[in-house]
Amino acid sequence: MAIPTYDEYVATLSRLTEHVDPTTSTPEAAAIKMAADSLAVLDSLDKIALERWTRENPQAVPVLGLTVGLSQEKLKNALKQHMGTTGWVTAARERPGEIVAMLDSQFGLVESLKAQISRTYSFGDVLVARAGARVTAVSASASGRVLEDQIEAIAVELGLTYETRTRFEGRFGRTAPCDLAIPAGGAAAQVVVAAKAFDSTGSKLTDAVREVEEMAEVRKGSQTVMAAIDGVGWLSRANDLRRIYTLWANGEIDGMYTVSTLDRFKADLQDAARFKKLI
After folding, report:
1. What are all long-range contacts of 48-54, with beta carbons under 8 Å and residues at least 24 apart?
2. Distance CA 83, CA 97 (A)
3. How would you class 200 by CB atoms within 10 Å of its CB: exposed for 0-12, middle for 13-18, buried for 19 or more?
4. Backbone angles phi, psi at 152, to 5 degrees
């Protein structure tokens, strides 16, 4: 089958994650609102009251972090730096006063709470907060997992033995990452597949390109390398996407697919598996 042009390939890219209505609540959002409401009705906003609240609400420590503008990742970093742990639930039960003291001394927790709890917020404030919010957002890996799951399902349907998210061994004992290895990773790998789908853009797309290039570079002549690349995030990283397409056009990888062409992937995978006597 002839390789499509780059533009023809781009035309098959699709959005893999559904749009999330920001006005629709989620369990995570509901939990944050409940915690915020419980903070708002405290008799006093001081360290003693917040220590008691923290002990009684260990799962809600991230809300204290959000109060001073800390994401969960930044909260973990602060806890690790100042308390030697990233586990806020256990720390809240055993050392609630230390958590409150750290957040107050380092980030001004008490004054920040006092300033925000009684404030009336406008629609503009909501949009500014939403611009950086992740409560209703789909995680960066979600679209990638959609494609990985579909690739894995095809391997199952074909009755192939496989290993996911592993490394395979190629020429001169060099290794490279892959999202699917058939029949297994390591030196046993005969067919390897990269699944790189992104609906948002960022440096992770460049990292994905490097992984595919590494797969092409270390492959043995007897190994088949395939790449499933999809998601509208690639539209903003045309140079990165073209690098992978060039590998395909030059014969350095054996196939490049999107969700809409997974029927072609299935046929090519089946042909490769039969040739290698894997089915």
Report:
1. 50/100, 50/109, 50/110, 50/113, 51/96, 51/97, 51/100, 52/96, 54/92, 54/96, 54/99, 54/100
2. 11
3. middle
4. -65, -40
Q: What is the pLDDT of residues 1-59, one digit of tens each?
A: 689 999 999 999 998 876 666 677 778 888 888 999 999 999 999 999 999 999 999 99
- Please name the residue that has the structure tokens 């409150």: 100
Place of tokens 């360290």: 47
For residue 102, give the DSSP letter: H
* Statement: residue 137 has pLDDT above 50: no
Helices (H), 118-202: 123-132, 142-157
Report residue 47 as tokens: 């360290």
Helix (H, G, I), strand (E, B) or coil at 230: strand
Question: Within 10 A of 214 (CB to CB), how many other CB atoms are there?
Answer: 18
How many Å apart are CA 259 and CA 257, to the nearest integer? Answer: 7
| 252 phi-psi bin (left φ>0, alpha ψ -120 to 50, beta other) | alpha
SS3 state at 19: coil
The alpha-helical segments, DSSP class H, found in 169-237 are 203-218
Residue 209 has, within 13 A of its CA and on its CB side, a CA count of 18
- E-assigned strands of 170-223? 175-182, 191-197
Q: Considering the entire predicted model, what is its pTM?
A: 0.63
| Sequence-separated (6 or more) residues with CB below 8 Å from residue 108 | 68
Could you report how far apart the first and last alpha carbons of the chain are, in Å?
22
